[in-house]
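Input record (one chain):
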Amino acid sequence: MSPNTLPARPRLAAHVLVRRHLVGEEERIILHDVRSGQLLQLGAREWVLLSAADGTRDVEGIVIAAAREGAHARAPAAHAFLAQLHAAGLLEAEATGDDAVRAEPAAGARPARAPEERGGRARPLEVLPDFSLHCDGRGSCCRIYASILFDPEEAARARALRPDVLSGGARHERAFTPERGTWPCAASVVAMRDGRCAYLEGEGRCSLHAIGGPEAKPLGCRTFPTSFVDDGESVRVSVAAECACVLASAGRPGGAPLLDPRLRVRGDLDERIDVAELPDRAPISPGATASRAELVAWSRRLAAAAPPPDVAAGLFALAAAVEAEGLTGGAIARFERPDPLEPAALGPWLAALHGRAARRVREDAAWRSERDLARRAAQWIAAATLALAEPDLLAALLATPAPAPDRERFYLRAALHGHRLIGALPLSLALRDRAARLVVARALPVAVAAAGDDDPACAEPIALVEAMLRGHGLEAYAAEVAGAR
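The corresponding structure, as predicted from the sequence alone:
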């Protein structure tokens, strides 16, 4: 079959995410191609037609199924619509035979693995020390993320507790879309109203929690912002600094523990919890790698090091030392006593992040609500990085002491404990990326003030930057810088 020929029984490709957004009372369906970054906006009628393309029907069957849901279309028009999506790389053929068996499970549908494959059920849980969480109940995290996942049982419980939300009590698909592709799918994503989870109450509290208690929320919400990473020695339990409450909790005793103290080893965890695993080897600089054991030992040494006067400058100095010396003690000494951060060294990182943020602002303007926190945060980051393109302004910012050094030190401590610096980027580039994020967070309050915004989420700029970079694709800017080096 020609790649341009519409499959006999088409379905939405698994690399396409469908998200339902309500802007006021206007419904918008957004298709996000995670491979290309392409966004496509559909109307409710087009989505009903597309959702019927689940790999089991030909075009005539799709038209009949859509008509039963009130979306009427003629077969030639439906064929033309689907062919256009296929030409854009958004459709694929149905899975048959061995292909169906080998089909990759959707995110959230974690296949069962033997204990040995999961790194050992007896691996101890090592929780970030001296930290407890104080949740302010304002729901900032429920307003910043594009996808909030529910498994089938969680979605059914939510619909039973709040059948009035988008009339989801009567029909699942009124409140949810598939996590990826089209149904059947192991996980669903709740619709968003003005960028907020549809189950979030006006004052920012979760209505599911209010009615049914914490167990009524999906697992991802109950465990957020906790992260789990198996490093071969232990499972590091840390926090993502993407939640304002995390940073506000730093240094405050008496909050909720990250983990039930009765849970001691990996086998005690809920099987549905996603435990990431460090690879056997990881890149530390362009062209150089280190073993997992070496990285774990280095991470522990750095966590025990004296904090530098300026965390961003320390990270940049450490990056250069790692490239020159590898994971030696001398590299950590450079971190503790760094040279001042030079505007010229930081400039390419800020410029690349500005390009990503500005693109996001343009895309969001076409479909996101003006009240959407993600849309406003993208505008603030774009404004801050644009301002920092002025060398004198950037130099003045770097010469000024960090406004919240305790927050920056905790941010690094949590990242080290959770191995969040080890990933697709070489370690040296990940260190520079984190330095750039901190500098942008320092500049963010000026951009927010200029916009005249007083959203509570603005109280912790580092959290806003972190949430936007991971949750809305802005972190890809670092790979662009790496490619240009």
